[in-house]
Every structure is written in structure tokens, then in C-alpha cells.
Known about the structure:
single chain; Immunoglobulin-like; 4 domains; five-stranded antiparallel sheet
Amino acid sequence: DGIVYDYNTARAGSSPVRYKYSAYHHFNMMTGNMDSYYRNPSQNNTYTGQSGMNWNGQLYFIRDSVGLYNEDGTNSGTRYRAVVQSVPGDPAPPAWVGGAGDASDPFRPKCDFGDAPSSYDPYSDPSTQSPAVHERSELIRLGATWDREFWKRGTAGTDDTDDGLPYAPIMAPGGGGYVAQVTAFNNSGANATLIAWLDYNGNGTFDAAEAITPITVPSSASSQNFYLYWASTPNSFTNGQYTYLRIRITAATAGMTTAHATGYFTNGEVEDYRVLVDNYPLATHFIDFNASAAVNKVQLSWKVTEDVNTYEYIIERSADNDNWQKIGNVRAKSNNGTFDYQYDDYYAKKGNNYYRIRIIESSGMNRFSAVRKVLIKDVSSTVSVSPNPARENISIKFELPTAADVAVSVLNQQGAEIITRFNKGLAGWNKIDLNLPAQLPQGTYVVRLTIGELNISKKIIVRK
């Protein structure tokens, strides 16, 4: 739980022995604070002894007897002697020697377990079987966070610790294809392997035949999206039933194959999702979704087919493809037909911007579009004016993310326009040559580049 429990058996004097300074210390490793400090309430009696912990995380003390520590400065009244005469008639054992040694201190690292029902992780023979479990590795994971657990939760579909999928798509009864998009992160410096299993035959286990073809995830400092695709899911489910989906990722060197729906790996993560079976389709379907950089904004456009149940579109943006925030919404037409929508983001950040659209229907059902990435460059940093100082003419160079109308003006120090020229700027690099008036006095002037609502100014010196 992130707390260091220090058993301080401080003894003062030898005749008589006193335990005045014996104490429990609770040190919080997450905050660096000493959360609790409990001093021996009775200096004539022993208090802490040596520390121990069982596999359920219960703490106990051990000296001449063993008992539970209640983690609040008190010890259990029930204790068991550590030195006993095991067989009547045998020689009496030696008396307990204070400070005879440390108690066992088992260490159990936090791991990530699959959360599907127990049938998916058979464990009847621990010598040959292991549930799906991964030790912690922040360099290889699914979604934005790594799930830290001490044991199998068994709560797939009700907890929020699994975030590789934004949602689990509905599976149709009878068969058909199934597809989901997962976000994976691998910054280990080497390839990782990603595999998913869908229990479409409903037998309560993840069979090797129910796995997708393994996906190689290259190393990258950014999260990556991958489609999990089953061309056919023959099943005998009926509407309202459900099954489970498992996704695992680990280092490629670990040798994970489609036969490893269960088992232990030293890194990576496992996530399980409950999949609803239903042939009630979402009313809205994306035909197209585009995102492109424009001057001072990002333009989003999408085409969809919808009906009266389509309610709203929520636009979300992310800087890392992991952490998403709502930036706007567009009400749907809520009619039968095909419609085009548009949204302009004027607050995109410099660098990579990721966009997705969440469809909201009046039934409460929702899903996401595919993710689109847009790179935003700082237009002002690309603008240059030469020569400077100038005599008769100047050249203005700049880069545009998309075609736009451009105006170039030369202003004196009072802000009066000396000359203005209008151009059609193209996506990419542009160059505008401008002849200065012959009668222009030497001095300091401002070259102003206007692109839509964006104004960029550069100073130049004119010499004759």
C-alpha cells in the first residue's frame, strides 16, 4: 500500500529491562511523510518485536510469541508462543533469546491480472498453470495507465482500470466480423507483441483459435493505435448475453503466442472486457472523417449516415493520444439521411494534436470515430525577410499549412502603409518579392504579413 512499517524495538537498560522508546513508524513512500508514530504505551513490556507479513498483506509481530499488528499502534490480544515443547516428555526447548533474528518478510510485487471470470484463468495445478499476469513495466502497457493490482479483481466490465479500449464494441449474434481499436504504448527500445482473444464460442476460455494474428508494436515515445480484427465470429449467442475479450502486450523477446491467453510475463499488461451480444446497431455510421491544419486553426469535417436517434457529436482532443478532453460539441440533424458536419479548433497546440469524435445517441449508446493526427507548426517562426538591410527590393519567405489569402504590407514607424500587395498563398513554402518605392527614405520600417486573422511583423532597415 506504499507504506513502510518500521518496528523499532528500542530497549533501554538491562536491569530491569525497559522498552520506553519501542515504537511503530508508518512512513508514506508516496508523500515522504511519517503518517503515524506510535510509542510503547507500557515501557515495562515489549511492544513491537520483529516484523512479518503474510501473502494477504496482513502484518504481524514476532518475538517470543507471534500475533497480528492492527496497523493502528495496537497488537492483537491473541498470540501464539514461538517457543513451545512440541512433544510431551522431550527436553524443554531453550528459552527465547531477545533479538534472535528477523522474522520472514515476504515481498509481493504489484502485478496486473486479467479480470475476466475465473474460468478464463484455470489454476487447478499451480505447477503447470498460471493466470494471466504481468509484472509492472511503465514502458510497455495498454492505454494511458498500467493497472497495479495484488490479485485478480474479477470485475471486468465494472471497473475503470482497463483503458486500452475506449469501449468494448457490441458483437452480433450468429457470427459476422468484429473489430476494436486499442491504444498501446511501447517505449522499451525494442519490439513488443500484441495479441487479443475473443471468446466467441462461449466456452468460458480463450482458445488459441479465437486469437487474432499477433501484432508487432514497434518502439515509440508516443502511444499507437491498432485494430483488432476477427473476420468471422461464429457463435450461438442470443441478444442480451455477453462474452469476454482479452488483450495482452509484452516484449517480443518474451515469446508470447496465441497459445498464451494465460500465463506469466515479466512486463506488459493484460486487459479484459465484457462484450455485449446484440444485433441492435448504432443508428449513426461514419462515412468519412478528416482533420487538417489551416492558418491559426484545425479544421475537422465528417460525413455520417444517421436517423432520428442520433443526438450529438462530441469533439475530443489529445496531445499524446492517451489523455483526452472535450473541446466542443455539434448537435446532430436527428433525421434519416447522410449529412456533413464541420468544427474548427482555434486552440490547437503547437506540435501533434490528436482528434476523435464521440457519437451520442438518444438511447444512451455511444462510440468513437477513428483518431486523426494533425501537426501544427508555428507559421511566425517560418517567416523571413531578406535582404536586411534592404535597398530596392525585399523577399518574404514563409510556410503555410494550407492555401490561404495573404497580404504583405510595408509600414513606416507611424504605422502608415507605404505599400500593400495581395497574394494567394499555397500550402507549403511561399516566396513573395516586393519592390520598394524609389523615393522611400532610408530608415526603419515594418513588414507585416497578414494571413486571415494572423498578423506577423518583421522589422527591416532601408539604406540608400
